[in-house]
Amino acid sequence: MNHGRNPNPPRAARSRCARELAGLIALALLLASVTPPPAGAAKAEKGKAKSAPAAKAKPAAAPKHTGLETLEKQVRSFTIANGLQFILVERHDAPVFSFATVVNAGAANDQIGTTGIAHMMEHMSFKGTEIVGTKDYVGEAPLLADEEKGWDALIAERRKGVKADSVRLAALDVSFKKAQEQAREKVVSNGYTTVIEQNGGRGVNAFTSNDATVYFYSLPSNRFELWALMEGGRMAHPVFREFYKERDVVYEERRLRYESSPTGRLFLEFVTAAFQAHP
């Protein structure tokens, strides 16, 4: 019996040796491919990089001039004798001046029972004065008074609720509408806006926010005196002609923006919940 090494190893052993040999050959090839270059070659590359000329930096772009750099210095503020404050910026690029009259009152100033009065005042400011928007103010004034009396009588009867006299209500309604028609005969419709536009005015408009009511438009510079007359007149001496007609317009705007709009109704509910009281 031979107790020495078998000169012919099994097939599995031979296969394992072949795989180990192939792995060693592959490792040797991999190491050969990543062998670092000689030290001299690295120094040569470094010297070449130092000798290359540096790229020229691009000059910084010149700052753009918009004409607004000195705007703050151009602003002037002053108050005239009647307490009206002006904030003025003169720019003579075009013979036009634009303005915004800012009234320090808005929807937040409406009191309980007078919701919408700030918005109503915005609309009424376009109805004119004793000299603008009327054919004959001397004849118009008593008709406006009759219109007010007719409304007072009608609303007083309505407030009786179920005790109101239906026949009297119908008669008062007819009387009130007749007073409206008579007063309207003296009105120059859109008279205020027409005067401005006939003199080159553009962008005649206004808006009411929570904290302010703002009126604005533009006119040629040579109509500045006209602007002062028109703006001062409607602020100091307005005539509330076509009041009830304009009230219905304000009602409709509210219905359109809020009551008939899902997002508008959501906004009102949100504001009511968020601001349960205000100064």
Descriptive overview:
This protein has 10 helices and 5 strands. With 279 residues, it is mainly alpha-helical. Among the domains are: 117-134 and 191-241, Cytochrome Bc1 Complex, Chain A, domain 1 (2-Layer Sandwich), CATH 3.30.830.10; 135-186; 242-279. The strands form 2 sheets. A 3-stranded antiparallel beta sheet has the order 3-5-4, with helices on one face. It has a two-stranded antiparallel ribbon with strand order 1-2. Helix 5 (137-158) packs antiparallel against helix 6 (166-184).
List the helices and strands and how they pair.
Layout: H1 11-33, H2 39-51, H3 71-74, E1 76-79, E2 85-88, E3 96-103, H4 117-124, H5 137-158, H6 166-184, H7 191-198, E4 202-208, E5 213-220, H8 224-236, H9 243-259, H10 262-274
Antiparallel strand pairs: 1-2, 3-5, 4-5
Helix pairs in contact: 4-9, 5-6
GO biological process, one term: proteolysis
Signal peptide: 1-41
Organism: Eiseniibacteriota bacterium
The best one-word shape is extended
Computed CA radius of gyration, to the nearest angstrom? 43 Å
| Sequence of strands across the biggest β-sheet | 3-5-4
- Report the mean per-residue pLDDT as an integer: 84
CATH architecture of the domain at 117-134 and 191-241: 2-Layer Sandwich
Strands, count: 5
Distance between the termini: 117 Å
Please report which band the strand proportion falls in: under 5%, 5-15%, 15-25%, 25-35%, 35-45% or over 45%.
5-15%
Question: Given the structure, what is the number of helices?
Answer: 10
CATH topology of the domain at 117-134 and 191-241: Cytochrome Bc1 Complex, Chain A, domain 1
**Structural class by SSE content:** mainly alpha
Question: What top-tier CATH class of the domain at 117-134 and 191-241 fits best?
Answer: Alpha Beta
Sheet with the most strands?
3 strands, antiparallel
The CATH superfamily of the domain at 117-134 and 191-241 is Metalloenzyme, LuxS/M16 peptidase-like
Q: Helical proportion?
A: 40-55%
Succession of helices and strands: HHHEEEHHHHEEHHH
Q: What are the segments in which pLDDT stays under 50 over at least 5 consecutive residues?
A: 1-13
Pfam family, one: Peptidase_M16
Signal peptide: 1-41
Family: Belongs to the peptidase M16 family.
Organism: Eiseniibacteriota bacterium
